[in-house]
């Protein structure tokens, strides 16, 4: 058979890229996985054995361009972000110690939120604007700390082929195969 130099190249590259066995790998500070991949059953912070059973969690991501909408209206942004965001189910493991640390952070932020609400109520009773402002700030800070520090890992990108996660510890990342 004659070789045809004008024939289109065969699609070997994409098959090889997806088919080398590893469904979770490291890219710099990111842990990257395919949608069908599973994180290893180890603590994503320190790489110790994870407490079983590992809870499945949903992570969300949307293109950062949507933040421009906040300039127009927070409400418009929230609605579009809810529609446009992508989600993925992942099972990030935590060891006993890191699970306890996280529980403490969540407990601390809950207590902070209650303290903030208490201050707001006291402010209403005393008609004190300054106290009300302080209560509001404490409440807001507690919610933000709980949301940011309470998450185990978070998605920095989700598309049809891969989920990129940030927040893993170096020991866990070092245990993953490296790509690029
Ligand atoms: Zn750990």
Walk me through what this model shows.
- The protein is α+β, with helices and mostly antiparallel strands and 180 residues long.
- Helix content is 44%, strand content 15%.
- The strands form 2 sheets. The chain has a 4-stranded antiparallel sheet, with no helix packed on it.
- Helix 4 (96-126) runs antiparallel to helix 5 (129-149).
- Residues 43, 45-46, 48, 95, 97-98 line the site of zinc ion (ZN).
Secondary-structure-derived class: alpha+beta
What's the gyration radius in Å?
23 Å
Q: State the end-to-end distance.
A: 38 Å
Uncertain parts = 10-18
**Bound ions, cofactors and other small molecules, one mention each:** zinc ion
Q: What portion of residues belong to β-strands?
A: 15-25%
Give the strand order, joined by hyphens, for the main sheet: 1-2-6-5
Write down the overall mean pLDDT.
Answer: 87
Q: Give the count of structural domains.
A: 2
What coarse outline follows from CA principal-axis ratios? flat
Helix content: 40-55%
Q: Report the biggest beta sheet as strand number plus sense, adding barrel if it closes.
A: 4 strands, antiparallel
- The number of helical elements comes to 6
Offer a concise description of the structure.
This protein has about 180 residues and is an alpha+beta fold. It has helices at about 10-20, 70, 75-85, 95-125, 130-150, 170-175, and strands spanning about 25, 30-35, 55-60, 85-90, 155-160, 165.
Indicate the topology.
Blueprint: H1 12-18, E1 24-27, E2 30-33, E3 57-61, H2 69-72, H3 74-84, E4 86-90, H4 96-126, H5 129-149, E5 154-158, E6 163-166, H6 170-174
Antiparallel strand pairs: 1-2, 2-6, 3-4, 5-6
Helix pairs in contact: 4-5
């Amino acid at each position: 058979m004659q070789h045809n130099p004008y024939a289109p190249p065969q699609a070997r590259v994409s098959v090889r890229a997806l088919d080398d066995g590893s469904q979770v790998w490291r890219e710099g500070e990111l842990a990257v996985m395919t949608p069908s991949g599973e994180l290893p059953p180890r603590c994503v912070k320190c790489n110790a054995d994870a407490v079983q059973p590992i809870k499945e969690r949903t992570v969300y991501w949307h293109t950062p361009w949507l933040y421009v909408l906040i300039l127009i209206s927070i409400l418009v942004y929230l609605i579009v972000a809810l529609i446009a965001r992508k989600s993925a189910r992942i099972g990030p493991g935590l060891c006993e110690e890191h699970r306890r640390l996280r529980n403490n952070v969540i407990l601390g932020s809950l207590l902070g939120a209650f303290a903030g609400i208490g201050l707001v109520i006291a402010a209403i009773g005393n008609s004190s604007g300054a106290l009300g402002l302080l209560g509001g700030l404490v409440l807001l800070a507690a919610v933000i700390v709980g949301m940011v520090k309470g998450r185990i890992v978070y998605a920095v990108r989700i598309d049809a082929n891969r989920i990129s996660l940030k927040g893993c510890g170096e020991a866990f990342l070092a245990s993953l195969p490296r790509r690029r």
